[in-house]
């Protein structure tokens, strides 16, 4: 597959005058051709102007046209075939099966949003008809629908080069909402980004979409991303990555003359509570499945179980011993980038050097470059309560088991935790009462609470919440996975006493779109 290393701005493919950079194969540290050129401020301006020019036309495309556009993007990504997977493998070090699965998820996600668009429920149409005879004051005719926020900038994630990147959940949900999208490509997988961006560009042309509906810019540094976030035509931001990066972009968005929402998914250690009866009954199985979850994909998941809590007992001792044994045989695997690998090594070294932390075991060391050696550590509940740094995310295959003296201490530790994407209860029937005491705390802490599973693996569906209080995300009222992600890029508008001819189709008296509307407080249909 031929890569040009150029920006995609509307229907143009143009070289950037800024600094050039190359992708690195993390498996061997070698740079990969071609050179990618960074955009400059004029190209940022052009992409933003095109997106703004496209906005009014794009947000009023029919539900069918927009759904077809999303489906065509999925088809065009599939048409890229094995070349896309090969490039993504060499840029991320991820294995073929994982990337093929991720491509499937990416395309299914686009198709899910196509169906969401068609159904039109996201418009949330409410009609309160006029009551001219009402006393003492007549009621005017009031109608509400949701409209798109405006052009959105998306920062793709390094750990999902397909499903959370150029055509990932942020882009799919923003396009579904009617927002043009400008992606700042992640520098770790620029070739993969170029291929997927080309697929979106082709789909936009085939579907007759306004030109500025999609652009993608490269940057060797942070200038382009920051300029996009600060540009007055950009009205929202989607981000997945580090806490430092997410906070920097949020600050940039808040310091604008017109502040805008930033939906940043940043940092989570996903506590798992091993309840006593479950631990007694199936501690060995739990230890095996825990090690599988923590080491999967070199632990490079935002839902990695980085913290495990249990009550002091021989059952917990056995769990730790079994998990340590399983972990010692865990092969090392290649991490996504040299930067992520060195951050992992530093975080593990910091944890190991903490006098209140004991090392249970480390996994196998690897032969090649940027290998993630798994790690398991323990600490006491009181020590975690005394030292906030023990909550720091270690992005990779490492987890910390917290030994609590009793349920009260476990509750205190739960209460002291930062916001999380997930919280998990490993529990049996006899644990229900204890779990019920934890639940109100976990509801305040996490976006998803699960029983008897592991947090890695996020279903893309309607009920999913992939979000949570800070620092899991910058806005706990939203999800970045699942159909509800569309609401991040919408806002309600009320139309008072507008004549039927002026009203948008969704609000006209005839209900030509056949929407289920809330009329005078009652659901139609
Ligand atoms: P990152 O450093 O936060 O970068 C993510 C994206 O944001 C990249 O496109 C990056 O630009 C851009 N960016 C970062 N800081 C910025 C700033 N100050 N101003 C403007 N743009 C900025 O994340 P990463 O490189 O993927 O991984 C680094 C660490 O992030 C990992 O070690 C891990 O701790 C965390 N991480 C978390 C998740 C999660 O799911 N929450 C996922 C991946 C990584 P460049 O492309 O130019 O670098």
From TrEMBL:
Q: Which domain of life is it from?
A: Bacteria
Q: Where are the transmembrane segments?
A: none
Annotated InterPro entries: Ald_DH/histidinol_DH (IPR016161), Ald_DH_C (IPR016163), Ald_DH_N (IPR016162), Aldehyde_DH_dom (IPR015590), Aldehyde_DH_Superfamily (IPR050740), ALDH_KGSADH (IPR044151)
Instruction: Give residue ranges for domain Aldehyde dehydrogenase.
Output: 20-460
Region spans: Disordered: 19-40
Q: Which UniProt keywords apply?
A: Oxidoreductase
Q: Which reaction does it catalyse?
A: 2,5-dioxopentanoate + NADP(+) + H2O = 2-oxoglutarate + NADPH + 2 H(+); 2,5-dioxopentanoate + NAD(+) + H2O = 2-oxoglutarate + NADH + 2 H(+)
On whether rRNA processing is a keyword of this UniProt record, the answer is: no
Enzyme class, UniProt record, top EC level: oxidoreductase
The EC number of this protein is: 1.2.1.26
GO MF entry, a single one: 2,5-dioxovalerate dehydrogenase (NADP+) activity
Q: Tell me the protein family, please.
A: Belongs to the aldehyde dehydrogenase family.
Protein name as catalogued = 2,5-dioxovalerate dehydrogenase
Q: Which organism is it from?
A: Chromohalobacter marismortui
């Amino acid at each position: 597959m031929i890569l040009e290393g150029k920006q995609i701005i509307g229907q143009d493919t143009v070289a950037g005058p800024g600094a050039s950079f190359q992708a690195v194969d993390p498996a061997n540290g070698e740079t990969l051709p071609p050179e990618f050129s960074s955009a400059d401020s004029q190209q940022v301006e052009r992409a933003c102007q095109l997106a703004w020019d496209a906005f009014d036309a794009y947000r009023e495309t029919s539900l069918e046209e927009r759904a077809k556009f999303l489906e065509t993007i999925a088809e065009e990504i599939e048409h890229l075939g094995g070349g896309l997977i090969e490039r993504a493998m060499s840029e991320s070090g991820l294995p073929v099966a994982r990337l093929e699965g991720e491509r499937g998820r990416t395309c299914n996600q686009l198709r899910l949003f196509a169906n969401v668009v068609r159904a039109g429920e996201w418009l949330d149409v409410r009609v309160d008809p006029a009551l001219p005879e009402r006393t003492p004051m007549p009621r005017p005719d009031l109608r509400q629908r949701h409209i798109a926020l405006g052009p959105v900038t998306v920062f793709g994630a390094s750990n999902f080069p397909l499903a959370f990147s150029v055509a990932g959940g942020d882009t799919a949900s923003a396009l579904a909402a009617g927002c043009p999208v400008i992606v700042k490509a992640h520098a770790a997988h620029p070739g993969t980004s170029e291929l997927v961006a080309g697929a979106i560009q082709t789909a936009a042309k085939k579907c007759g979409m306004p030109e500025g509906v999609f652009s993608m810019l490269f940057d060797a540094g942070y200038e382009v991303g920051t300029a996009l976030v600060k540009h007055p035509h950009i009205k929202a931001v989607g981000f997945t990555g580090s806490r430092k990066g997410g906070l920097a972009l949020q600050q940039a968005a808040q310091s604008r003359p017109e502040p805008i929402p930033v939906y940043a998914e940043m940092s989570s250690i996903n506590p798992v509570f091993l309840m006593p009866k479950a631990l007694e009954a199936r501690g060995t199985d739990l230890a095996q499945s825990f090690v599988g979850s923590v080491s999967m994909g070199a632990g490079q998941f935002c839902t990695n179980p980085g913290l495990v809590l249990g009550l002091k007992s021989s059952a917990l001792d056995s769990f730790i011993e079994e998990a340590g044994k399983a972990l010692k045989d865990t092969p090392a695997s290649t991490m996504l980038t040299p930067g992520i690998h060195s951050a992992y090594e530093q975080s593990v070294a910091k944890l190991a050097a903490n006098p209140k932390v004991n090392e249970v075991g480390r996994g196998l060391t690897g032969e090649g470059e940027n290998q993630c050696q798994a790690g398991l550590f323990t600490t006491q509940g009181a020590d975690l309560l005394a030292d906030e740094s023990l909550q720091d995310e270690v992005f990779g295959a490492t987890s910390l088991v917290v030994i609590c003296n009793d349920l009260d201490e476990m509750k205190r530790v739960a209460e002291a935790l930062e916001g999380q994407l997930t919280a998990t209860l490993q529990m049996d029937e006899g644990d229900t009462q204890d779990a019920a005491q934890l639940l109100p705390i976990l509801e305040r802490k996490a976006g998803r609470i699960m029983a008897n599973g592991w947090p890695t693996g996020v279903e893309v569906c309607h009920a999913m919440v992939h979000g949570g209080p800070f620092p899991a995300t910058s806005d706990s009222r939203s999800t970045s996975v699942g159909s509800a992600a569309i609401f991040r890029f919408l806002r309600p508008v009320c139309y008072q006493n507008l004549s039927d001819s002026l009203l948008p189709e969704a609000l006209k008296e005839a209900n030509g779109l056949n929407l289920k509307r809330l009329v005078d407080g009652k659901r139609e249909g």
